[in-house]
Design goal:
The chain is built from 19 helices and 28 strands. By secondary structure, the protein is an alpha+beta fold. It folds into four domains: 170 residues, GAF domain (Beta-Lactamase); 118 residues, PAS domain (Beta-Lactamase, 2-Layer Sandwich); 177 residues, Beta-Lactamase, CATH 3.30.450; 234 residues, Phosphatase 2c, domain 1 (4-Layer Sandwich), CATH 3.60.40. A hairpin with a 4-residue loop joins β1 and β2. About 3% of the residues have low confidence.
């Protein structure tokens, strides 16, 4: 069996499949269609060996298995057996108790239940089962049954998905049964106002007639029940109840269905006394009896089901997931602010979002206000009505109350201490409701998030908890970024102070150093330098301290000082590396440091050793290649005597390059691929420089620039990069 995916990715898949299933169920106008949609999703997500739907028959008190429409691989959707509600079976217990029943092993099934039906289940070879009741408005509709060829049944996340699926299935089956009843009623009796009212009361059903180009030609009692409309519904009065953004698609869909006589299903927002509600609607044509599929449509049977809470729940989940995803890819304080504001407008349905972030010492300072407007994006900064000290008081008060949720009436009554003038301007802009949410993380109070709405907002606890969770997530991200910025600033100052200065002038050697830091990342521990030991001898050093931030910068400064001191005492590569190992042993540090150290003389004699660092590149008349420097182990790692040293002679004009691993290895490019690319770029760049004879002061810089440019093209740079290029001048001096 395939391993289960991580909870975050599984949760996103579950939401996606529930949304897709809801769409399919809205179009299902019979029980078989509803069953097919539910079982497909259950089989795909839960990896069932078998699954099925049994509907409760109140007359016989049986759970009756339902056959789906034809689906691929029909075996997993077997019909099962009728189950009496008073039997000793998991399905009957789930139906009687209205609670899920999980059977995690064959032994548990035999211990808890008995009877022939259970023996039939065991005979299938399955190892665990789950039975989830299907409830609609508290009424038992049936039971969803799952069988697995693995022990353990459902985990917590899978049970949550199965329960949501059972609820969707219950509503769809109930609606399909009502539609079946309505179809029978249409063909058995004449149309009458009394019948309309009866069907509408039974399940938000309407029977109506419509003509292309005219509109409705009969009333909609069910529609009236939802909207509590006083005015006329026909021929086009119903349009006034539909949200303006949804109306064009609704009109187009209805006109096409009226012309073609086809069934239809969609979801729209409907104006009700309680505000906008999401309604799942469907309708099926009824043709003249016995006249065939080409007969004219006599009337339509339609249903309207309120799915507002489901839509809101899905929106809340999507919004928090989208905010998490957006915050994972930002690196600066400004980007975090923009991500939070955009998610608030897009996901929380705010017409305007504003956010303030308190400085570390608010005092009497002004606090800037960042705003985001629907359809306009980031807006210029507004004046903040509170000083820093007042702002801190506001945040503290909001933290205690869990936020403030204001209405237009509350603001109009002038009972608010939340900047009345600012809210008066908001009312003039058409805003009618506001949520003021504290941005508080565990260590500190960060600021305030203000959401403005142009529609009345629900006052239920679930919506307020969603907004509070959104604010907590935003506060945590802002606090984390503030701490990161502070550390980055400290580390940058530290690294700048500890970095080597300009390369020394050596008359027989041309040298150029290039460094770059990945966007948004903390400073790291790369450095490169040349140590002039005498007129004809230099030490070439490039080191890399693993890690980032102030610690890496400090470690880099310590190792650099040790290298310079040891090189002045005894510059031989083996002596320097042994001395560094001893320094690490004495200090007890656990920092991981790699180092290239080379001793180069004016006649081209190079002695080089490595402490776990990448090999250097050279390019000369024979082409470009990597030098076979003994790799060694990182500094401070026991077991290396540092006896292996490369001893070669470089020709005049040779280009010599050392670099940190950030040049060649990235998230999107492997090390081997990067090393091959660097070898090719160095050969091309050195060859062009030699052919063009650019001059003694140009070759090293040109090669370093081309390496940085070409190897950084089209890849995601996620590490610091340091490159040191040398060229032996020889006779060119």
């Amino acid at each position: 069996m395939e391993p289960r995916s991580a909870p975050a990715s599984r949760g996103a898949l579950h939401v996606h499949l529930l949304q897709r299933t809801a769409t399919e169920l809205a179009a299902a106008l019979d029980v078989a269609g509803a069953v097919s949609a539910v079982l497909r999703s259950a089989h795909a997500v839960l990896g069932t060996s078998s699954c099925g739907v049994s509907v409760h028959d109140p007359d016989s008190d049986l759970l009756l298995p339902q056959l789906p429409d034809a689906v691929d691989g029909a075996d997993p959707y077997g019909p099962g057996h009728p189950v009496p509600l008073d039997s000793s079976t998991p399905s009957a217990e789930a139906a009687r108790t209205a609670r899920p029943v999980l059977i995690r092993s064959v032994e548990e099934l035999r211990t808890r239940f008995d009877g022939g039906l259970n023996d039939l289940v065991v005979a299938t070879g399955e190892l665990s089962w789950a039975m989830v009741p299907m409830l609609a408005r508290g009424r038992l509709v049936g039971v969803l049954r799952f069988g697995f060829d693995r022990p353990g049944s459902l985990d917590e996340l899978e049970l949550e998905f199965a329960t949501a699926l059972a609820g969707q299935c219950a509503l769809a089956v109930e609606r399909a049964e009502l539609l079946d009843t309505a179809r029978d009623a249409v063909q058995a009796a004449a149309r009458s106002e009394q019948r309309y009212r009866t069907l509408a009361e039974a399940g938000s059903l309407d029977v109506f007639t419509a003509e292309p180009g005219v509109g409705l030609t009969s009333d909609l009692p069910g529609w009236r029940a939802l909207t509590r409309r006083d005015g006329p519904v026909m021929p086009v009065g119903w349009r006034d109840d539909v949200h303006p953004d949804d109306l064009p698609a609704v009109i187009e869909t209805w006109n096409r269905a009226a012309v073609e006589g086809t069934r239809l299903a969609y979801t729209l927002r409907l104006r009700t006394p309680d505000g906008w509600r999401w309604i799942s609607t469907s309708a099926v044509p009824v043709r003249a009896e016995g006249a065939g599929s080409d007969a004219p449509v006599q009337e339509w049977i339609g249903s309207a089901v309120d799915v507002t809470e489901r839509v809101r729940g899905e929106r809340r989940t999507r919004t928090l997931q989208a905010l998490t995803s957006a915050l994972a890819s930002v690196h600066t304080h400004d980007d975090v602010v923009a991500a939070v504001l955009a998610a608030a407008v897009d996901g929380a349905d705010a017409v305007r979002a504003a956010l303030t972030v308190l400085p570390e010492d608010p005092g009497g300072h002004e606090v800037p206000l960042h705003t985001w407007q629907r359809d306009a994006g980031r807006q210029p900064l507004d004046a903040m009505p509170w000083s820093g000290a007042q702002h801190l008081e506001v945040v503290a008060a909001l933290e205690v109350s869990g936020g403030a949720f204001l209405t237009e009436q509350y603001v109009a009554d002038d009972r608010s201490h939340w900047a009345p003038e600012a809210f008066a301007d908001a009312v003039a802009r058409g805003e009618v409701a506001w949520a003021l949410l504290p941005l508080c993380s565990r260590p500190r109070q960060v600021g305030v998030l203000l959401l403005s709405f142009d529609e009345p907002q629900p006052e239920d606890a679930a919506e307020r908890e969603f907004l509070a969770a959104f604010a907590r997530q935003a506060a945590t991200a802002l606090e984390r970024q503030l701490l990161s910025d502070a550390e980055r600033s400290t580390a940058s100052i530290l690294q700048e102070a500890l970095q080597p200065g300009p390369l020394p002038a050596v008359d027989w050697l041309q040298a150029h150093r290039r460094t770059a830091t990945s966007v948004g990342s903390e400073v790291g521990g790369d450095w490169a330098e040349i140590i002039a030991l005498d007129d004809d001898l230099v030490a070439v050093v490039l080191g890399d301290v693993m890690g980032r931030g102030a610690r890496a910068a400090t470690a880099m400064g310590e190792v650099r000082t040790q290298v310079r001191t040891l090189a002045l005492i005894d510059p031989r590569p083996s002596a320097v590396l042994r001395g560094l190992d001893q320094c690490f042993a004495v200090s007890g540090t656990d920092d991981l440091v790699t180092l290239f150290y080379g001793l180069l003389s004016a006649d081209g004699h190079l002695r080089a050793a490595s402490a776990g660092h990448l090999p250097p590149l050279v390019a000369d008349a024979a082409g470009s290649r990597y030098l076979d420097v003994p790799p060694g182990v990182p500094l401070g790692v026991a077991g290396d005597e540092r006896a292996d040293v490369l001893d070669v002679h470089l020709q005049d004009g040779t280009v010599f390059c050392v670099f940190s691993d950030g040049l060649v290895e990235t998230r999107t490019r492997g090390l081997t691929e990067g090393l091959d690319a660097a070898l090719a770029v160095l050969g091309d760049a050195a060859g062009r420089c030699e052919a063009g004879r650019p001059g003694a002061q140009d070759t090293a810089a040109a090669v370093a620039d081309e390496l940085m440019t070409e190897l950084g093209r089209g890849v995601e740079v996620d590490d610091d990069v340091t490159v040191l290029v040398l060229r032996l001048l020889g006779a060119e001096r």
